């Protein structure tokens, strides 16, 4: 997982929910119950932000 520094200068990992939010998943998105936290981290690590990919593709097509 990714690291996050708190206000008290401690380090903690982002939760899968926080990472999903950064990837623009819907706020009410939930993994199925059988998915473990480790699996959720793995799945999110292999995902792409559709919003970011869209912006990148727009820029690519504008330049061609």
Automatic annotation (TrEMBL):
Highest rank taxon of the organism: Eukaryota
A biological process term (GO) from this entry: methylation
SUPFAM superfamilies hit by this protein: S-adenosyl-L-methionine-dependent methyltransferases
Coiled coil: none
Cellular compartments per GO CC: nucleus
Pfam families, per the entry: DNA_methylase
Keyword Methyltransferase among UniProt keywords: yes
GO molecular function, one term: methyltransferase activity
Alphabetically ordered keywords of this record: Methyltransferase, S-adenosyl-L-methionine, Transferase
S-adenosyl-L-methionine listed as a keyword: yes
PANTHER family referenced in this protein's UniProt entry, alphabetically: TRNA (CYTOSINE(38)-C(5))-METHYLTRANSFERASE
Listed name of the protein: DNA (cytosine-5-)-methyltransferase
Organism taxonomic ancestry: Eukaryota, Metazoa, Spiralia, Gnathifera, Rotifera
């Amino acid at each position: 997982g990714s690291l996050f520094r708190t206000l008290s200068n401690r380090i903690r990992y982002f939760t899968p929910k926080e990472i999903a939010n950064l990837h623009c998943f819907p706020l009410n998105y939930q993994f199925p119950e059988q998915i473990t936290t480790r699996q959720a981290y793995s799945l999110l690590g292999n995902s792409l932000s559709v919003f970011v990919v869209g912006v990148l593709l727009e820029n690519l097509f504008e330049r061609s």
